[in-house]
Amino acid sequence: MMKNIGLVVLVTFLSTFNALSQNREIAVDTTVVTSHSTTINGSKITYSATTGTQPVWDEKGEPTATLFYTYYKRTDVENTANRPLLISFNGGPGSASVWMHVAYTGPKILNIDDEGYPIQPYGTKENPYSVLDVADIVFVNPVNTAYSRTIPATGKEVEKEKFFGVNADIDYLAEWLNTFVTRTQRWNSPKFLIGESYGGTRVSGLALALQEKQWMYLNGVILVSPADYKAMNSDSPLSTAINFPYFTAAAWHHGVLPEALQNKDLLEILPESEEFAINTLMPALAKGGFFSQEDKEKLAEKMAYYSGLSTSSILQHNLDVPTSFFWKELLRDKKGYTIGRLDSRYLGIDRIEAGSSPDYSPELTSWLHAFTPAINSYIREELNFQTDIKYNMFGPVRPWSFENNNTREDLRQAMAENPYLNVMFQTGYYDGGTTYFNSKYTMWQIDPSGKMQSRLSFKGYRSGHMMYLRKDDLKTANEDLRDFIINSLPKGKPAKY
Fold this sequence. Notes:
alpha/beta; 2 domains; ten-stranded mixed β-sheet; two-stranded antiparallel sheet; 15 helices; hydrolase; signal
């Protein structure tokens, strides 16, 4: 008799548990609002944080995806018509907007040391330099990043071609932003886009798509360590030459340049390396193997002088030294470490010192070490957004179509059409993935007419891809961003040439 009672109790418990359990899926359209206060630049401000999901709709009005976002709005300011809105994207493609969210512009930043390395306990703390004092901020996560998902999330019904490509990404995000701006009543606000890495490609294309397809005009675009695939995927005379000054910067940081350079400040020697790269190295590489061995050896010696590499290793590469080899080679015979791809201040340990490229990216593993626990706990415990869906730091978006990537020209066209639109580049000197001189080159190519130079600016920092992880650069970069936003407001000036 007791066995039967036990069986009934067990069956009843399992039935109740199954009835209460939920499918592991994200809500298509939902918001959670919390209230907060913080101190920025010595002044206390109050703000609301809205976390939620907003649908992406197809032509029939059916949801095909939902995007997770976090929207910070200052609550002690009444008139949003004069209040800028900063729309923030990271890159990848396939990366969540976590990086700038909890390390750069948002009201909370990682609990890390002053150079950006992980420390425990993990988590977040107040960001005393956030630009929330001058602009409201929304951090947007494209499809399959963070908690954003397609509908359905998997299977043959997922129309990947509508999301996973340069132009598809721009099209659906422009439409999504139209809905977001409408829902939040921000049509009258000055608007700014900020994009990091591949996000630079994304916001360059969005600038024109928002103007021409959504009739939404911007005041500014900020490109943080942007990826310019036109330059990066070009022939070696261009791509190798514009990456070369980064070699100088990284070698200087590790103290392996000749004494004549090492005893100077970084910003004193970089112009020398840039001039060499543009006026000597680029035309030499354009000749391929069709110049004398004597000239090749002289050029290799000069490259060694500015890079910390050996003349012999440069000659073995026919002067065309890959960045991956540089990360492996620079400290190979000096300290036995590799250096980081996206931030060459970071050191790695390979299984063997021999080889042509590092085993792993030490900077990325360090960042994931600190960012992943921080964003998961912050969203759940402070912003009160609850879900069992995994937060994708990097989501499945491959294969990604780069077909018809004209985003650099899109940005130029957007600037030409809109006299209010200003553009700023922010990059770290020790970034070997999207190098600082590549950003300068991109900036020069945006304006071949030379008529918009006053609306283009460049800022460099003594760190890497995410320059804001270093405390000194966090402060300076936010100050530069704050000044850019304020100075890009028209203050009554009409939009005309």
